[in-house]
From TrEMBL:
UniProt keyword annotations, A-Z: Decarboxylase, Lyase, Pyridoxal phosphate
Protein name per its UniProtKB record: Type III PLP-dependent enzyme
Family: Belongs to the Orn/Lys/Arg decarboxylase class-II family.
Needed co-factor(s): pyridoxal 5'-phosphate
Domain Orn/DAP/Arg decarboxylase 2 C-terminal: 45-397
Superkingdom to which the source organism belongs: Bacteria
Annotated ranges, domain Orn/DAP/Arg decarboxylase 2 N-terminal: 51-301
């Protein structure tokens, strides 16, 4: 099943985050993508630091008085990207020791780093405990014992939180991660037993809760409901241990519009629902002093990124138009629809050089790989294109290169560029 995205979404995203010059050339941070493609080769990823900073500040302001922000490194783990958010005041949420090292390289203090994920190995845990990580989120009993052993080896008491797989009342988002059997976290109905097990470990100090009920949430009321549920779970943990909680991590899950009909998350509606949650916190002496944190990734980086590919050939096949490019699923699995999507719909795409009024037509944009899965768009409304033209895949700042099978068919790695202050810097060289 396919669905063509409206060109209106692509145009709106370009107007909001980027620009076109008088010649119709798409620009990022004032720099023409045509020149960047010539200078750095294609395919390439281009990230606009100004869009990242603007998005972060808008979210920070909406959450003011309720929650702080820790950037979820998995969305885009390039140290230069992490550094942008660190400069804005964010901590980091990581899921491996390599991400820990990337965050440290970006300047994030280890005490501002949280470690989540269902399969933390002994080597990863040893690295982060030795490095002074701020908090580790426990997801199963075996992991609890590994963290305790790492603490004993290094002679430290490790600060930990319990990740809870909530009941069905907390579900929501495009990808539900709570209210069903899950490898993530302790089931809510087993929470008390998990609390008691952690409290029995001399090398562990239980300081918080981690809840992540769903991802790609576009509705404020859904997120607010999940957060309210999380505060209730936090109160239960605090009462069980008989002392105040220090952290309440309500997860990420803030979504961005990818497809026709998607509406952007309404930060105003989100802000309007926070006084009730803030009042709940302040009314409970066991929660009032806790640091509430959200860990968005996609929301912060997605809109700032563009994936640029060059047209190699254009062909007609049995009534369909195909544009074959040098970019594909080996660099951008999510855009191909093969990163968990059930219905494979098109990301917003645009020609880097505007068609000058030419009527757009439904176009399949495919990559160079020897598989029919390598399809960046199935029916994108694009103007006529020819060999050498450039295509831009928008909303590509998150879950792009490092979430893709880069080794498949052994094509070279694309460059990654960070644009800021009218200058483009290669933060990952081509090849």
């Amino acid at each position: 099943m396919t669905q063509a995205v409206s060109s209106d979404l692509a145009a709106a995203l370009i107007a909001k985050n980027f620009s076109r010059d008088e010649a119709g050339i798409l620009r990022v941070g004032g720099l023409p993508l045509t020149e960047l493609a010539e200078d750095f080769g294609t395919p390439l990823f281009v990230y606009d630091a100004a869009t990242m900073r603007r998005t972060y500040r808008a979210l920070r302001d909406a959450l003011a008085g309720f929650a702080a922000i820790d950037y979820s490194v998995k969305a885009n783990p390039n140290p230069a990207v992490i550094r942008v958010f660190h400069e804005e005041g964010a901590g980091a949420e990581i899921a491996s020791s390599a991400e820990f090292d990337a965050a440290i390289e970006a300047g994030v203090p280890p005490e501002r780093i949280l470690f989540a994920g269902p399969g933390k190995g002994a080597a990863d845990l040893d690295r982060v405990v030795a490095g002074g990580i701020g908090e580790i989120h426990l997801e199963n009993r075996e992991e609890m014992f590994r963290v305790a052993a790492a603490g004993e080896r290094h002679g430290v008491m490790v600060r930990v939180a319990l990740r809870i797989n909530p009941g069905a009342a907390a579900q929501g988002g495009a990808m539900r991660m709570g209210g069903k059997p899950s490898p993530f976290g302790f089931d809510e109905e087993a929470m008390d037993a998990a609390i008691d097990a952690v409290e029995a470990q001399a090398a562990l100090r239980l300081v918080g809760l981690h809840l992540f009920a769903g991802t790609q949430g576009l509705k404020a009321e859904t997120l607010l409901g999940q957060w309210a549920y999380g505060l209730g779970l936090a109160a239960r943990i605090a009462r069980r241990i008989g002392r105040p909680l220090e952290t309440i991590d309500l997860g990420g899950g803030l979504g961005i519009p990818y497809f026709s009909g998607d509406a952007a998350l309404d930060l105003g509606a989100l802000r309007a629902g926070l006084p009730e949650l803030t009042a709940t916190l302040r009314a409970d002496p066991l929660l009032a002093g806790a640091r509430v944190v959200l860990e968005p990734g996609r929301y912060l980086t997605g809109p700032a990124g563009i994936y640029v590919a060059r047209v190699l050939a254009v062909k007609a096949s049995r009534g369909s138009r195909f544009v074959i490019t040098d970019g594909g699923m080996h660099h951008h699995l999510a855009a191909s629809g093969n990163l968990g999507q059930i219905v494979k719909r098109d990301f917003p795409l645009a020609a880097v050089v505007d068609g000058g009024g030419a009527e757009p037509a439904a176009t399949a944009v495919v990559g160079p790989l020897c598989t029919p899965l390598d399809m960046l768009a199935r029916a994108a409304p694009l103007p006529p294109l020819a060999e050498g033209d450039l295509v831009a895949v928008l909303q590509s700042g998150a879950y792009g290169l490092t979430a893709s099978p880069t080794g498949f068919l052994s094509h070279p790695m694309p460059a990654e560029l960070l644009v800021e202050g009218g200058r483009a810097t290669a933060i990952r060289p081509r090849g």
